[in-house]
Amino acid sequence: MTRVTGASRGLPPDQSDESRTPARPDADAVTVARGSGWPAGVAGAVAALGATAIVWVAFLVLPALVWFTAENSGAFNDSVLVVAAQAFWAAQGLPVALGDVTITLLPWGWAIVIAVILFASGRWAGRVSSAAGLIPTAIVVSAATAVYCALGLGLAWFIGPPAPAPGRLLLTGVILGGVCLTLGVKSYQGQLRQTVQKIPRNILHCVAAGLTGFLVWVVAGGVLVGVAAVGVAMAPGGSGSGPIAAFGGLDVGGLVAVTAIAVGYLPVAIGWAVSYGLGVGFAPIAEATVSPFSALALPELPALPYFTMMPVPPPPGAAALPLVGVLAGVLAAGLLRRRNLRGVHLVVGSLLSLMVSAVLLLGLLIAASGDLGSNRLAGIGPHVVSAVGVACLLWVLGYLIVVVPTLWSDHAHQNDEAWHDHERNAPAGRKLRYVQRD
């Protein structure tokens, strides 16, 4: 069979099929083009320097603003630098020591901001460098991680005793910096998508369903936090008016500091709200628990963000919040069903997605637990084990609402098809007897 082309039809070369089809770039040409970029080690070092400079400036501006706008602040001294350094370490997931008290309930919102900056720096390093293979990419990431860790250790040496141990600083820098920078470089090279495409499709469906079940609770927790904030801000009086009034008397630096703290502890507040929505509740102080089924009065709480939003007594309809977990299970199982998982595959996929949701929720609740001080502020946060157990029960109920009817309908459909196949394969005389009997 002869292939008909534009040239064989008498067309000029510029109108042939070959000329109209754009040629894919050759791999060697791409490598040569990348070879004109920065050296891999230089690109990684510059990326780490830029990311660290942005983060340090951001964390230094806030304490400096609070210091200069406060009354009787005095001259700028080392205490501002110590506060900025401690905020930077807390944002990387390291406990902060304030005198005899160690704070382990950390502002994970700041850690997310640092991770995004490092990720963007990794993408920039991948764009400007000649990293087109495994070894150049490893050089970029190694150089960037080494510079990031070295700057962190230098800051700890400059600040002195309040700094965490060098081993913990190095481990945190390697994990946070190495992972985010690697993902950034791989993302620019398009290798993240290639890696995801190599994962079996059914596994991806299970992970997506588990992530859906978890994100439903995260969105619900964010909505609860937003509703509580609006309710406290618009309330004409009540227990929240005192702290709100105190915040209203702050100057510009104080308001910026409160806003930054609120952003940093937003993931913690969402974890508390998720535990509240599950019906288990959380402990804002050591000797009290806030839940939709508890109307106990709370003692006086610190004038800190999110402590002014305690839903005490429970608002109307709060007892129905656990139904969100059932809805999350229904949505996750529905996603698996839409991906044409049937029978045993649907059951196994539901179990795997349930495990993904439980692990993600466990991580969120653990991150939302810890010490914010001593005495009453020690060991606060959600009741992790009880909350995860209740969430799994609600998810299972939602899964059953979708999985059981699906399995029943599939079984009935298979029986119907088997009956029709049996009728088609029956002898002609037997079919005639059935017709005469009817």
Condensed summary:
The protein is mainly α. The chain has helices at 17-20, 27-35, 40-69, 78-91, 108-128, 134-159, 166-189, 191-198, 201-234, 241-248, 252-264, 266-277, 323-338, 344-367, 384-425, 428-437; strands spanning 96-98, 101-103, 282-285, 288-290, 381-382. α3 packs parallel to α6 and α9 (201-234) packs across α14 (344-367).
Characterization of this structure:
- With 438 residues, the protein is mainly α.
- The protein folds into two domains: 35-198, no CATH class; 201-408, no CATH class.
- The protein is 67% helix and 3% strand.
- The chain is built from 16 helices and five strands.
- It has helices at residues 17-20, 27-35, 40-69, 78-91, 108-128, 134-159, 166-189, 191-198, 201-234, 241-248, 252-264, 266-277, 323-338, 344-367, 384-425, 428-437, and strands at residues 96-98, 101-103, 282-285, 288-290, 381-382.
- The strands form two sheets. A three-stranded antiparallel β-sheet has the order 4-3-5, covered by helices on one side. It has a two-stranded antiparallel sheet with strand order 1-2.
- β1 and β2 form a beta hairpin.
- It is flat, with a radius of gyration of 30 Å.
